[in-house]
Amino acid sequence: MVLLECRGVTKLFGALAAVQDFSFLLHSGEILGLIGPNGSGKTTLFNVIAGLYTPDQGKVFFRGKSTLGLPAHAICRLGIAKTSQIMQPFTDMTVWENVLVAALYGGNLPMARAVEKADEVLQFVGLGTLRDDPASKIAVPFRRRLELGRALATGAEVLLLDEVLAGLSSVEIEEALQLLREMRRQGKTLILVEHVMRAVMGVSDRISVIHHGEKIAEGNPREVAGNPLVIEAYLGKRYA
Amino acid sequence: MLLFFQSLVNGLLLGGIYAACSAGFSLAFGVMGVVNLSHGDFVMLGAFITYWLFVLLGMDPFLTLPFTLVILYGLGYLLQRLAINRLVGAPPIMSYLLTFGFHLVIANMALRAWTADYRSVNPSYSGLTWNWSGIVLPVSRLATFFVAMGVILGLYYLLYRTEIGRAVRATAQDREMARLTGVRIFKIYTFTFALAASITGLAGSLISNTFVIYPQMGLPFTITAFCVVVLGGMGYIPGTLLGGMVLGIVESMATTYLTAGISLTLTFFLLLLMLILRPGGILGKGAIE
Amino acid sequence: MARYLYSSRIQFIFLLSMGILLLIPLFGLEGYRLRLLALVFMWVALAGCWNLMSGYTGYIDFGPVAYFGIGSYCTALLMIRGNLPFLLSLFLSGGVCAGFAFIIGLVTLRLQGAYFAIATFAVAEALKQIILEGDRLAGVEFFGGSHGLTLPPAPSELFFYYLLLFFMGMVIALTYLLSHTKFGYGLRTVREAGSAAELSGVPTLRVKTQAYMLSSSLIGCVGGVEAYWLTYIIPDDVFHIMRTIQMVIMTLLGGMGTVLGPVIGGSFLTLIAEYLGVKFVYDYLILVGGVIILVIILLPRGVVGEIKRRRGRSRWFF
What percent of chain A clears pLDDT 90, i.e. is strictly above it? Predict the structure, then answer.
């Protein structure tokens, strides 16, 4: 079933098209990898889907209905959650409270249920021991987990994960990938923006490649890795 | 018709003065993100320095300018070095409150020391006017206007044509990058604030022969500075000139055609309107935050 | 299940304190001391209202005095020109303030931090000017201009003591209760620049508007109470920026975003003001300025905030 669809999405900043006529389909339960060189428009696309930006052209459809014009918080409540590359914990609150807020608002849960959900999510992402620490004071790798935790606590079906593996060691990456697979097992659908190639190639069902805001390739990881256009985009013409 | 042009000219002269009074405010905000609520008090101090030098030593107001420059530079230097520099990276509210604290202390110490009496500086030439085809131009206001223009141009030159000005602008644009290229951030901040204070004090000295002076005149000037800078674009020095002119003309027209009381309300409405519709200033070059 | 987030110990302390304050007058507290205590209640309530909005959201409102003034004038006008009884006038004034807050909020709450602060300040000053000049420009005899308004004679000091105690208690209780609700958490997410709150599903504009309306209507009510208490109001007094400054500094000193912060800051500064104010007006202001400077540099989280920080917990008296 097609859960999310982007149809001809274009986002301009002045004269620059950060995203140009981008279309793709996301099926329920799949893990889609979105890769591309730096500055190719991945985060912009995510921001459009999440409702932070309004597309200049094109629309985003969630479960068949257009999300055009909906504010970000409404889109989150509908079922699309995004993590931020620049981690933004709620500094005035503890780790647990950060996740609680997401469960209360994004998940629209009553307080009692939200408390339970927050506890569950913290256990799941492995932040249980840090629950009462001020969110602004925890170490960087844990902040990523917090971002993930908040997104999970909203109960969203579609999770847009922006570079959640950046800066992790090999062991940590493996642990993170396990988490992602477990999330899919629990019924989540994921889009991963990643630069850690072997990870994203290893865990994704399909890959879309974006370059200068346009889709240049799509397919399963092996097809995409061998695609000359993709190689050229990353390494230049000589290697294609 | 003549009334209209007189109003217009008055507004322009006033505008130049407002611009000079507000440039320092824009500078502090543009470079450091500091909204200096004690800004008007620097104007007040400059005016009083001129007053006392005039009254006690008989010095001509225009000759007191170097004194004001130096004294206010020192004050700005101390304030920044000892207090404001500690707020780098803190939420903006801290700088509003800190500078408001400065305002309370400065304005009320002045009040205690000099009482609330209104005073004015009246050199021998204060009554002279020049009549230009029917439009009355007070000579001292005219001279003040030209000096104010000179100050703005001088500031512009400093910022855009000198090494240190470049460092200041670099810091304003991207603090981390500037630091990486060797700019000593705290020294730049201290210099900037001290510069802003001295220019503002200078403007205060200039206006001493145009306006009445009293210890509490600071706050209205801070409000004026807000308005000028929002009109011209926060942090955009050339815009201060435009902002000053617009405000000066609006106030002048309002005073002529409506009442003096309403002009302040108009200032506020203008400010609100700008903030809502065009926070980047008329030219759109200001910081939106 | 959520009950466990509220501490019954704190509730007990609160009720005990309120009980003591309720009973004190019966033990001979009267005259000057009664008035002073009532004044403390008033300022704690005002600071508490400001804290509810700006303390928790970090979105600094520099114009709360606007609502104090609106509340004062509304209550006065309803009583004088509408011949309505005091409590009804007060209640209606609260509603009027909420309405104004909604309208003003529509335009100002979308602005970024510094601009919101300036805009709210401008609104407060503009309102003062309008009330001052309005009659003259429109040619009517309504607001009383710079002469102000005189209200009907007021009941005893005791009446105001209890009324202000009620408001103070309500504001403190409200702050405490709200801080553990969804709304309270939502408020605290607004503080962050950036999109984190929205991405977690928090409708930031709506939350800000609700807090703003709540805070403003309560401030307006207190304004109405003071109008009746003093029997005479003028624009320069009820719209004076010093009221805003007091609210801000009291909360700052006590600790923004804490329940007890306004209590500590409000009591302390009101008592100091009384001690210095009558004879040494300028000294009081210089002192306030000095306090502000010291607090910002040394104690940016306020007294309660620093205590919380040292204890390393986010949840203590919340």
Answer: 52
Strand partners of residue A81: A159
A114 contact residues in C (CB cutoff 8 A)? 182
> Domain boundaries in chain A?
1-71+191-240
B243-to-B19, B28, B102, B230 alpha-carbon distances in Å: 7, 16, 26, 8
CB contacts of C57 in chain A (<8 Å) are: none
pLDDT tens track, chain A, 240 positions: 899 999 999 999 888 888 999 999 999 999 999 988 888 889 899 999 999 999 999 999 999 899 998 999 999 999 999 998 888 888 878 899 999 999 999 989 998 899 999 999 999 998 988 888 888 888 877 888 899 999 999 999 999 999 888 888 888 889 889 999 999 999 999 999 988 888 888 899 999 999 888 888 898 888 888 888 888 877 776 655
Partner residue opposite C123 with nearest CB, options B86, B92, B272: B272
Which residues of chain A does C197 touch, with a Cβ-Cβ cutoff of 8 Å?
73, 90
Q: What are phi and psi of C222, to 5 degrees?
A: -60, -35
- What pLDDT digit, counting tens, does each position of A176-214 carry? 899 999 999 999 999 999 888 888 888 999 999 998 888
Nearest C-alpha neighbor of A160 from the set A127, A121, A103, A208: A208
CA angle C293, C295, C298 (to 5 degrees): 105
Residues 69-88 of B with CB under 8 A from C: 83, 86-87
DSSP codes, B132-176:
ETTEEEEHHHHHHHHHHHHHHHHHHHHHHHSHHHHHHHHHHH-HH
- Residues of chain C in contact with residue A86, where contact means CB-CB under 8 angstroms, are 194
Residue A16: helix, strand or coil by DSSP? strand
Q: State the count of interchain CB pairs (< 8 A) between B and C.
A: 123
- Write down the pLDDT at residue C74: 92
Q: What whole-number percentage of chain B has pLDDT above 90?
A: 14
In one letter, which amino acid is C155? P
Joined tokens for residue B255: 């005073």
CA dihedral (B80, B82, B84, B90) in degrees, to 10, reads 150
CA angle A145, A147, A151 (to 5 degrees): 115
- C157-193 pLDDT, tens digit per residue, is 889 999 999 999 999 999 998 888 899 999 989 887 6
Determine contact: B92 vs chain C, CB below 8 A.
Answer: yes
In words, the CATH class of domain A1-71+191-240 is: alpha beta
ipTM rounded to 2 decimals: 0.87
CB contact under 8 A, C202 and A93: no
pLDDT at residue C292 in the model: 83
- Return the number of other C-beta atoms located less than 10 Å from residue A149's C-beta: 26
Q: Is the CA virtual torsion C121, C123, C126, C131 positive or negative? A: negative
Find the closest chain C residue to A106 by CA distance.
C201
Q: Do chains C and A touch (3 or more CB pairs under 8 A)?
A: yes
DSSP state of C51: I
Query: pLDDT digit string (tens) for B155-205?
Result: 888 888 888 888 888 877 777 777 777 778 888 888 889 999 999 999 999
Where along chain C do its domains lie?
A: 2-241
Dist CA A203 CA A196 (whole Å): 11
Distance, CA of B95 to CA of B92 (rounded, Å): 5
Min Cα distance C122 → chain B (Å) is 5
CA–CA separation, B67 vs A137, rounded Å? 49
Q: What SS3 state is found at A13? A: strand
User: Of B139, B125, B142, B151, whose CA–CA distance to B203 is shortest?
Assistant: B151
Helix, strand, coil proportions of chain C in percent (round to 5)?
75, 0, 20
Give the pLDDT confidence of A115-147 residue by residue, as tens digits: 999 999 999 998 988 888 888 888 877 888 899
